Amino acid sequence: MATIYLRNIPDDNVATLKEAARAENLSLNSYVATMIDTRAKHVRNMEQLRKRIYNFPGRGVKTKEILEALHESRAEAAGGAD
User: Fold this and answer.
1) pLDDT tens, residue by residue, 33-62
2) pLDDT-derived band of residue 81, with 50, 70 and 90 as boundaries?
3) Would you say the pTM of this structure is higher than 0.85?
4) Is residue 31 part of a domain?
5) Phi, psi angles (nearest 5°) of residue 44
6) How many domains are there within the chain?
7) Is residue 32 part of a domain?
8) Spatial separation of the C-alpha atoms in residues 23 and 39, rounded to whole Å
9) Cα–Cα distance for residue pair 16/8, rounded to 1 Å
Protein backbone atom coordinates (compact mmCIF):
# COMPACT_ATOMS: atom_id res chain seq x y z
CA MET A 1 0.00 0.00 0.00
CA ALA A 2 1.08 3.53 -0.64
CA THR A 3 1.46 6.34 1.85
CA ILE A 4 -0.13 9.68 1.05
CA TYR A 5 0.67 12.89 2.89
CA LEU A 6 -1.88 15.70 2.66
CA ARG A 7 -0.99 19.33 3.12
CA ASN A 8 -2.98 22.55 3.29
CA ILE A 9 -6.15 20.95 4.58
CA PRO A 10 -8.26 23.60 6.33
CA ASP A 11 -8.47 23.11 10.10
CA ASP A 12 -12.25 23.03 10.08
CA ASN A 13 -12.23 20.19 7.53
CA VAL A 14 -9.77 18.22 9.66
CA ALA A 15 -11.93 18.78 12.73
CA THR A 16 -15.03 17.61 10.86
CA LEU A 17 -13.27 14.48 9.63
CA LYS A 18 -11.90 13.70 13.09
CA GLU A 19 -15.38 14.05 14.57
CA ALA A 20 -16.89 11.81 11.88
CA ALA A 21 -14.15 9.20 12.41
CA ARG A 22 -14.68 9.27 16.17
CA ALA A 23 -18.44 8.80 15.68
CA GLU A 24 -17.72 5.61 13.72
CA ASN A 25 -15.06 4.42 16.18
CA LEU A 26 -12.34 4.72 13.53
CA SER A 27 -8.99 6.40 13.47
CA LEU A 28 -8.74 9.44 11.22
CA ASN A 29 -6.43 7.44 8.96
CA SER A 30 -8.92 4.56 8.64
CA TYR A 31 -11.80 6.93 8.05
CA VAL A 32 -10.03 8.86 5.30
CA ALA A 33 -8.65 5.65 3.74
CA THR A 34 -12.22 4.31 3.56
CA MET A 35 -13.38 7.53 1.92
CA ILE A 36 -10.58 7.33 -0.65
CA ASP A 37 -11.35 3.66 -1.33
CA THR A 38 -15.04 4.40 -1.84
CA ARG A 39 -14.28 7.27 -4.20
CA ALA A 40 -11.72 5.24 -6.17
CA LYS A 41 -14.28 2.44 -6.64
CA HIS A 42 -16.81 5.00 -7.85
CA VAL A 43 -14.32 6.41 -10.37
CA ARG A 44 -13.49 2.90 -11.67
CA ASN A 45 -17.18 2.01 -11.94
CA MET A 46 -17.97 5.20 -13.82
CA GLU A 47 -15.13 4.53 -16.25
CA GLN A 48 -16.43 1.02 -16.90
CA LEU A 49 -19.92 2.40 -17.41
CA ARG A 50 -18.64 5.01 -19.88
CA LYS A 51 -16.85 2.28 -21.85
CA ARG A 52 -19.96 0.11 -21.91
CA ILE A 53 -22.16 2.99 -23.04
CA TYR A 54 -19.64 3.98 -25.71
CA ASN A 55 -19.48 0.41 -27.02
CA PHE A 56 -23.21 -0.26 -26.69
CA PRO A 57 -24.59 -1.57 -30.01
CA GLY A 58 -27.58 0.81 -30.00
CA ARG A 59 -25.47 3.88 -29.29
CA GLY A 60 -26.88 5.79 -32.28
CA VAL A 61 -30.49 5.39 -31.17
CA LYS A 62 -32.35 8.66 -30.68
CA THR A 63 -34.02 9.55 -27.39
CA LYS A 64 -37.39 9.78 -29.15
CA GLU A 65 -37.03 6.19 -30.38
CA ILE A 66 -36.13 4.98 -26.88
CA LEU A 67 -39.14 6.74 -25.36
CA GLU A 68 -41.48 5.37 -28.03
CA ALA A 69 -40.21 1.83 -27.38
CA LEU A 70 -40.59 2.37 -23.64
CA HIS A 71 -44.19 3.56 -24.02
CA GLU A 72 -44.99 0.62 -26.31
CA SER A 73 -43.47 -1.82 -23.84
CA ARG A 74 -45.43 -0.33 -20.95
CA ALA A 75 -48.64 -0.45 -22.97
CA GLU A 76 -48.04 -4.12 -23.78
CA ALA A 77 -47.30 -4.87 -20.13
CA ALA A 78 -50.54 -3.12 -19.11
CA GLY A 79 -52.53 -5.33 -21.46
CA GLY A 80 -52.57 -3.09 -24.51
CA ALA A 81 -53.95 -0.04 -22.71
CA ASP A 82 -52.23 3.20 -23.59
Assistant:
1) 999 999 999 999 988 888 877 776 666 777
2) low
3) no
4) yes
5) -65, -45
6) 1
7) yes
8) 20
9) 15
